[in-house]
Amino acid sequence: xxxxxxxxxxxxxxxxxxxxxxxxxxxxxxxxxxxxxxxxxxxxxxxxxxxxxxxxxxxxxxxxxxxxxxxxxxxxxxxxxxxxxxxxxxxxxxxxxxxxxxxxxxxxxxxxxxxxxxxxxxxxxxxxxxxxxxxxxxxxxxxxxxxxxxxxxxxxxxxxxxxxxxxxxxxxxxxxxxxxxxxxxxxxxxxxxxxxxxxxxxxxxxxxxxxxxxxxxxxxxxxxxxxxxxxxxxxxxxxxxxxxxxxxxxxxxxxxxxxxxxxxxxxxxxxxxxxxxxxxxxxxxxxxxxxxxxxxxxxxxxxxxxxxxxxxxxxxxxxxxxxxxxxxxxxxxxxxxxxxxxxx
Length: 344
Fold this sequence. Notes:
Layout (H helix, E strand, L loop, with lengths): L1 E6 L3 H12 L3 E8 L4 H9 L3 E3 L4 H9 L8 H6 L3 E4 L6 H11 L2 E4 L11 E2 L1 H4 L8 E4 L2 H17 L3 E9 L15 E2 L7 H5 L7 E9 L5 E8 L8 H9 L4 E4 L9 H10 L10 E4 L4 E3 L2 E8 L6 H11 L6 H15 L3
Parallel strand pairs: 1-2, 1-4, 2-3, 4-5, 5-7, 6-7, 8-10, 12-13
Antiparallel strand pairs: 8-11, 9-10, 11-15, 13-15, 14-15
């Protein structure tokens, strides 16, 4: 069994913990919190060992004062695990990396950290093999994960791809009440946005540029994508749709036939099919919004920012621990276990 430590039990961490708990080849070694809080109740209900994010005795003692059984500090958790999934808030990567290296433990960061932190990034479909046996890596962001899901299989089919995309980003997660914009559309004035270059950390052969705007919603991101296929590609709109239907973690539905025309309806569908927290691990593509005109492909897709990277973390654990060399085998195992875990 792979013993997995989860450093940070928040939006991503609690979901990774559940996904680990669902697997038959992994166990949650423990999760961390900065201090006693409501999140500790969730860890206790799930039976996940609780640790403090640092080794300060006073901070550790505060958990007991709050009524929680804290097993120790981060060093104690790292000593009891084979790999740590870092789900701490962004910009703490360098500090945490030094702790992980000192403990001699394999480590996985999230897309809030930069590629340069580890020199290696991960998505299941793009570069699973390149991460096998690595000491540390970074699961790319939710947006980059979504781009990989649809663009990588298209590249593998056509052997060349030039992409322009606009990321219509949610302003904040549902629980981030301190963020905005509230009544504005905010363009990201750094061009290109980080999303395109980030995709090239896992699939450098894809030529991609990206723009981004933040809009006042908390539900999902939407991508408007234009992809130029090479001449003689032999693809049609229907064949591209069939390619994506056969691709793991891509969900195609019709805006007109299924009456799912907005991100609100996408998330309502996720709740209706019984997904915990209303999560949607798949990238959602509106099939009637896909159109290949000559060599140029147009399409829209939606990304649930809180959950699409969750199964990627599980596949990444197997890559680092060298327990599964084939990404599709790992994906199938991961997704089946998560579905069974929630009775879906």
